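input
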Amino acid sequence: MLMTQDDDELESLVRKRIRALRVAQGWSLGELATRANVSQSTLSRIENGQRRLALDQLVTLARALDTTLDQLVETASDDVVTNPTIDGAHGLMRWTVKGDPGMSVVRQRITQPPPENPARMRAHPGREWLVVLSGTAVLMLGHRRFRVETDQAAEFPTMLPHAIGTAGGPCEILGIFDRDARRGHRSTDGDGDLGRPET
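output
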């Protein structure tokens, strides 16, 4: 047995999670049972709480649902809500992503257009994502120029020379940096600023 009586709440959560992931994929009980190589009746009893969960079954189901065992049995910690670090000097709000402390999220208001000269753009290892909350952002990638409108997002490798600015008025963005991109911005700026646009 994987779980004891003390873990009934976790077991119930895992059962609900299995069903929710199955439904989100649009799969019937039979389809998931086939993918996980278990009988449909076994899967039905697992989802309905009529059969205790076994570790080998959870590993197989996690794989079939395209997730991991850790994610399947993960419970919420008490610190669900976090507050940002405020950088008033640069107008930044920064959050650390708890699941991966190497990642950061930065909220920023941009008022300047990006530089047109690639020599004034930065390049470093990593990957970045940006989501435009309001206005229109301009993403420069080498000699290419992309308009990113409100509610649109962009993802790009930061080994390409890049810069982010605005088009015809202020815009507000969320920038998401992986570990390498975060490190690259820190070493480029020298002051730990992750998201200041080049001006």
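quick obs: The chain has two domains: 5-73, 85-189.
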